[in-house]
Structure formats: structure tokens, C-alpha cells
Specification:
single chain, mainly alpha, 6 helices, about 45% helix
Amino acid sequence: MAKKTWKEKFNNGKQPQIKTIVKAFWGMDKGSRMLIPTPKLIQDYIYHCEKGSFSEVETMRNDLAIEVGADFTCPMTSGIFLRIVCEYHYRKWQLNTRVEDIFPFWRMIDPKSDLAKKLSFSLDFIQEMRLKETF
């Protein structure tokens, strides 16, 4: 079976879910309600980040959980889906080289983070785009 593209991973057709955890997880107690987001939900959150502002992934997870009435957002899936959003939109940008058309995923990616190191493209791109937004 062929490997899925970033576009296929982004458009996975799934909906966000809230699950009750059956054992303690990531510092949360058994019985806590955990949001499992989707790439689309994460994209929608980033759309609302103002130009020139940069948000922390932890803030995003907390905001998303509050928005849907969960106790927390799954850190593992939110990291995976954030990477999918970044890779998907970077690939779209490569096909259309107008910088103003690219989705501003760099507002959520700290260039020093572990996630940034996993991206297939240069961290210089993130830093350059952040710099362009602040001037």
C-alpha cells in the first residue's frame, strides 16, 4: 500500500472526539475527558491567531479543550496533527510560490521545539516567516 500524502492525512474525514480516559495519562486523572482533535480543528485554531503573534502549542491545547468542554487535549495527537497541518500547507505553498497565499502555520511552531526539528523543511523558513510578520 502506498504511503499517504500530507493532503490525504489532512483530509482524513474524521471528526474531533471527546473520550473519557480509563487510566491516568499525561498528568490527568482517570475519568478525565480528553479531546482528540483533527488537523482541520488545529488549522481553524491557527487561522484565529493574529498576524505577528505567536502562540504556544500548550495554549492551543488548553483553548481547544475549553472550547469543547473537555478537561484536556491529547498532546500526542495534537502534535501529530499540527505537523500534518504544517507539512500539508508547506507543500501547497511549494506549488504556488506566492508567500501571501501560504497558511500561517509558523504562528504555532517554535523553531526550537522538537516538532520543528521533525518537519521536512528548513527551520529557516519558519524563522523567516515569523520575522516577516513582525515588521
